[in-house]
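Record pair follows.
FIRST:
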Amino acid sequence: MVALIRNGTAPTQSALTGSTSLPPCVDHDNRCSQTSYKHLLCNPNALPDTQKYAIQTCPLSCNYCAEYLAGFTPTLTTGPPCEDKMNCTILVASSMCNVPTVKNLCAKSCNQCSHGILLNELPVG
């Protein structure tokens, strides 16, 4: 399980190991952007139940994205480490990265990585 940071900022995906999937921080009620509604909900001195409602309903307008995202466990996808399995200098210089075998053998040099994880392991052959 990956712990989320609660210091007022949500972690970036690059701060986590592997690829993660978190929901976007969006408001779930059209009234969230209304000044009177924001004043009522986004008050830092609001009752705990009101603040909980604001976090769940208007996280973007109330600037509660970190708290909102802390309520989710990100889906963590890991894979094999992204690395070249051979010296790929000549293959990359020859624009061979579109060949599936080269893409697999030269994953790092052919930009097949995300945060150090191989995106799609392709069969060799």
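SECOND:
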Amino acid sequence: MYRDSDSSPGSLLEVNKNGLLINCGKNTLLIREIQPEGKKRMSVEAFLCGTPLKAGVVLSGQKPGKEQ
């Protein structure tokens, strides 16, 4: 999937029940299912019920509240 964006790589471009659209530099990645650490795989729709995310957030790979 391709979409022009001025946002940083790792930025959430869209967040909805159909998936998470993430900027990957020149391309984008649509994630439809996710598996949080220690949990079963689930739809993004189910994940968003317990983990609110908004477009514009930059994914870092860190757990929330953890500083390096």
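COMMENT: The chain has one helix and five strands.
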